[in-house]
Design goal:
Distance between the termini: 22 Å
Structural class: alpha+beta
Order of helices and strands: HHEEEEHEEEEEEEEEHHHEEEHHHHHE
Helix content: 25-40%
Shape: globular
Strand content: 25-35%
Number of strands: 17
Largest sheet: 7 strands, mixed
Number of helices: 11
Oligomer: single chain
């Protein structure tokens, strides 16, 4: 899910028109019980008639960012290069990071940006990690064709207690092809994934049809449990997100959460913009990295807290939380203050529980834009090296 916060970053670097052209406009999200009782409904229009989200195939975002990186001046890409560790080594009169790869390469760097995901092995070497805990629950995912656009322009979820959650996210057109896609996700405890893969897929499909009868045609595309990929979650807390010697953490490597609020890619993009701005404004590298960590403190603390609080109401063994959710969450969504708070949270604009001021809704182009103009690049200073991790 691309939110206004992340889309504003893509807009700055000229990638948003192409993202919108391949994505699916999302007007809001809704959740209902197996009996059809509404649990939650959040509409972007409650915040502004111009606000919207974009359901997107991850490959589309990757292709756009990767292609842009390839045309940046002074950037060398090293592909298929697993990074094993880094060390802070003395060079001249100061310590700076040196990166080591599985192939024996050694890279002396001025700045190491660690952005290799929730399972980053480099995070544990930083000495900054306060929490790194796997969630007991995760999700099985599958992308299928949705030529009839059955789920329209909404993220739709169906729940039965806290142990079963089914979701459908319109996902646009994907990296190639012109057939609309939808992402299906199914909540599952991590230790039950192998059991699911050994079971008859028809049993699962029958249960899915009970929760969401309208998806029956989509399920005909599913033939094998192995087609559903498992995504595990981690709860990661770091303070701060940098070492003054020239190491900084971004995205899920720095602050992984469950995807309950759909903020992962958006927070990573905003991290990148905050780092760019800090590097452009500060007099020294250590000052810039400290400024980056300060600038992200309130927003990241809020989203980590909100996700940690919300997740057990949808994925846990606590049946009482499901009962409370089904009886009170929908009415809460109808209270104006709470509804706007939830919508701002979905948009990626909130920065605190009660008193902090939310970020303004960024101005975005129309969701009907087609292919965009020539790509604009971020300001570059000196050379850079990007290494891909096999994770």
């Amino acid at each position: 899910m691309m939110q206004p916060s992340g889309m504003s970053v893509l807009d700055e670097i000229g990638l948003l028109p192409a993202i919108i052209a391949r994505g699916a406009r999302i007007s809001g999200l809704q959740c209902a019980t197996e009996q059809g009782r509404p649990v939650m409904r959040v509409d972007y229009a409650r915040l502004s008639p111009t606000a919207f989200g974009v359901g997107l195939h991850r490959g589309v975002l990757f292709d756009q960012l990767f292609d842009q990186a390839g045309v940046e001046p002074n950037v060398a890409l090293h592909l298929g290069t697993p990074v094993t560790r880094y060390a802070l080594e003395k060079r001249v009169d100061q310590a700076r990071p040196t990166l080591y790869t599985a192939t024996g390469e050694r890279h002396e760097l001025d700045l190491l940006v660690v952005a290799n995901g929730a399972r980053s092995e480099l995070r544990s070497q930083s000495g900054l990690t306060l929490r790194d805990t796997p969630y007991p629950w995760g999700a099985l995912w599958l992308v299928v064709k949705d030529e009839g656009r059955i789920f329209g322009d909404r993220l739709s979820q169906f729940v039965a207690g806290t142990k079963e959650m089914l979701g459908f996210l319109p996902t646009g057109l994907g990296p190639t092809g012109e057939t609309p896609l939808v992402s299906i996700f199914w909540s599952i405890e991590a230790h039950r994934v192998d059991e699911f893969r050994r079971a008859n897929i028809e049993v699962w499909k029958r249960r899915v049809r009970q929760l969401a009868p309208q998806c029956a045609a989509l399920l005909e595309q599913v033939r094998d449990p192995a087609e559903l990929l498992f995504a595990g979650y981690r709860d990661v807390v770091m303070r701060p997100w940098h070492r003054s010697e020239g190491v900084v953490f971004l995205g899920d490597a720095a602050h992984a959460t469950s995807p309950q609020l759909g903020q992962g890619a958006n927070l990573a993009l905003v991290d990148a913009r905050a780092l760019r701005d800090a590097l452009g404004n500060a007099a020294t590298l250590s000052e810039a990295l400290a400024q980056y960590s300060r600038s992200r403190r309130h927003e990241l603390a809020y989203y980590q807290w909100a996700t940690r609080m919300l997740t057990p109401f949808f994925q846990s063994n606590a049946s009482l939380l499901g009962w409370l959710r089904d009886r009170f969450m929908h009415s809460t969504c109808r209270v104006p203050f709470a509804a706007r708070k939830m919508t701002r949270t979905l948009c990626g604009l909130e920065r605190g529980v009660v008193f902090s001021r939310a970020l303004p809704l960024p101005a975005l182009p129309s969701a009907e834009l087609g292919a965009g103009p020539a790509l604009k690049s971020l300001p570059a200073a000196g050379g850079a090296a990007a290494l891909s991790n096999s994770q």
